[in-house]
């Protein structure tokens, strides 16, 4: 039997742990000035990170649903990630509101992933859009999602620490 179902479960559990860690970390901030700080001085604010996380999980949920339905996944906006974050005005939005938005979208995304038959390799290895190189599977997406959240958790820690 393939170990992939077990690995997928671990990835989905990691996604859920990242949610709890980010929520806890942000709830411990006592200095509101931290929310105005930027990663590296000119990078993103915590609000921008959270808005980006919510956007990414919304896109990944739509992409996963399309792949499962045998449809072509949605395409991107043609804008860079920085452009999308700036255009959305996340820096001016309340971080705790954005946190709640992300937690809701992320929970929906994780629940959808967890509802899929974990041993259906054809489903998990179904290729995406030709524009994505055609090889970006649902399995790849789960792995990327777990790394993506961890990367931004680290970014939030740097913002708070620096």
Topology diagram in text:
Layout: H1 4-27, H2 46-69, H3 81-88, H4 95-115, H5 121-124, H6 138-161
Helix pairs in contact: 1-4, 1-6, 2-3, 2-4, 2-6
Protein model, in words:
- The protein has 162 residues and is mostly helical.
- The protein has a single domain, classed as dinb family like domain (Four Helix Bundle (Hemerythrin (Met), subunit A)), CATH 1.20.120.
- The protein has helices spanning 4-27, 46-69, 81-88, 95-115, 121-124, 138-161.
- Helix 1 runs parallel beside helix 6 (138-161).
- The longest helix has 24 residues, at 4-27.
- 26% of the residues are buried.
Provide a concise account of the structure shown.
This protein is mainly alpha-helical and 162 residues long. Helix content is 65%, strand content 0%.
Number of domains: 1
**Straight-line N-to-C gap:** 47 Å
- SSE pattern, N- to C-terminal: HHHHHH
- Number of DSSP strand runs: 0
The CATH architecture would be Up-down Bundle
Feature tags:
single chain; 162 residues; Four Helix Bundle (Hemerythrin (Met), subunit A); mainly alpha; 6 helices
